[in-house]
Amino acid sequence: MALARTFAIALDGVRGHVVEVEADISAGLPAFVLIGLPDTALGESRKRVGAAAVNAGCPLSQKKVTVNLSPASLPKQGSGFDLAIAVAALAAAGAIPVGAAASAVHVGELGLDGRLRPVPGVLPSVLAARDAGFARVVVPAASVDEARLVSGIEVVGVTGLRAAAIVHGAELEPVDEDPVPAPLAELRPVPEPDMSEVTGNEEAVEALVAAAAGGHHLSMVGPPGAGKTMLARRLPSLLPDLTDADALEATCIRSLAAPGAAGELVRRPPFEAPHHTASAVALVGGGSGRIAPGAIVRATHGVLFLDEAAEFPPSVLDALRQPLENGCITIHRASGAASFPARFQLVLASNPCPCGHYGSSDADCTCSPMARRRYLSRMSGPLLDRVDIRLTVHRLGLAALRSVAHPPGNGRSSRELRLRVEAARARAAERLSATEWTRNADVAGSWLRSAERRLGATAIAPLDRALERGAITMRGYDRTLRLAWTLADLDDADSPDVDHVGRALFLRRGISA
């Protein structure tokens, strides 16, 4: 009997778990047995590994080969275990030194010709290997750039099983073979539209700056042509570049989307805009096989824009309520569960009624009061209570257009507005340096309401009156406080005064101070 082991990674969302791959060769009829809770794709690796080993010139033993994936209670999915299974089987047969095989983590799918194919999730797999204390990881040649985004671990790229065996000390002659390229991913950087293209709408532009500075959620209601979509698509251009930690997390999510999609760190905030026919699974994630991240996960550290929000099914919109509070989503299926980050900035845009003309001065609304209420009630009260800024956007008429004294964008480009946002965020980060938060939108309400940080009686009076008469909820009270701090940071003030609180109340519910 011969026994050898190596290691692979099983992904649970963006988290990786080290899996010990054991191979045992014993007397008996030729057989290849795979145990350890594999899914269908992983169970088929027996055929792939056997054919790949023969075509690579290092066939497996003709005795009984048993491969165990440990821990056996952890579900394993996908074809990324192929290379580890083949290396363990070859090491058990004596073709590869046992010690060399046991010192590395292996990630990759084998083709029948013995070449190694890239798989999704290489970046989070390499992160998990490094965090587990491994010094070396072997990946497909097409995934080397992605794997080398992780520092502190040696990345070895190989074209196939034969090359991997040689790396581990097998006495084989190297052969020239073309690496399998990664599938072409439609992830080319798209130029961000600039705020200089926006004419007028000064209040809306300032509200977007406040949303960007504090990380606040935003809702816009207005007739068609008022500029809601134009404004929302320019919000990412106001956001600062991602920090190293946030960029790495965003890139891990992109890595899960497709093999080879994460060749470099994601430095700009992502932007996701699903169509209003999207299902709850498309929005939050899921699937019958591998649990895939949804739009809210792909928008992590960026913007999730729901255009025509009132056209989404209410059940789909309400699925956002928990992620908005928790900043993460755990998806449960019969086969297991997966956790993903979901720290996104939500932007809702909607018409005021089915015909879109309610409140418009240049067209008559044909909707009944009941139809208008039914239309906007698709966005439930609990969902809107989590939105900090609620704007009513009006069409810009010819007279207003001619009265604009400044060029489009009010003379301010996205770059200039981003400098204001970055200065406000730096001020907030300095104030919150002793805490776990960096943005005003993330601060706990109890921290803001504590005796040491509570605003003066004069400044807080409008907010207290609004709470007393039931105009806002306790959650709304805290969210208005956070927005007031953001407005103070934009004005370079030490703390919010009554004007900042009044403006925050107006932005939240149109309540006058």
The portion of residues assigned to helices is 25-40%
Mean pLDDT: 90
End-to-end CA span: 82 Å
Instruction: Please give the radius of gyration in angstroms.
Output: 28 Å
According to DSSP, the number of beta strands is 18
Lateral strand order in the biggest sheet: 11-14-17-10-18
- Poorly predicted runs are none
Descriptive labels:
513 residues, alpha/beta, 5-stranded parallel β-sheet, 4-stranded mixed β-sheet, 22 helices
Descriptive account of the structure:
- There is one protein chain.
- The model has no long low-confidence stretch (mean pLDDT 90).
- This protein is an alpha/beta fold.
- The protein has helices spanning 40-43, 45-55, 82-92, 98-101, 122-131, 144-147, 161-167, 202-214, 228-232, 244-257, 280-284, 295-298, 314-318, 321-326, 369-376, 381-384, 398-403, 414-431, 445-448, 457-468, 474-490, 498-509; strands at residues 2-12, 15-26, 31-35, 64-70, 105-106, 109-110, 116-117, 136-140, 154-158, 218-221, 271-272, 285-286, 292-293, 303-306, 328-333, 336-341, 345-350, 389-392.
- The strands form six sheets. Strands 11-14-17-10-18 form a five-stranded parallel sheet. A four-stranded mixed sheet has the order 1-2-4-3. Strands 5-8-9 form a three-stranded parallel sheet, sandwiched between helices.
- It is 36% helix and 17% strand.
- The longest helix has 18 residues, at 414-431.
- The chain contains 22 helices and 18 strands.
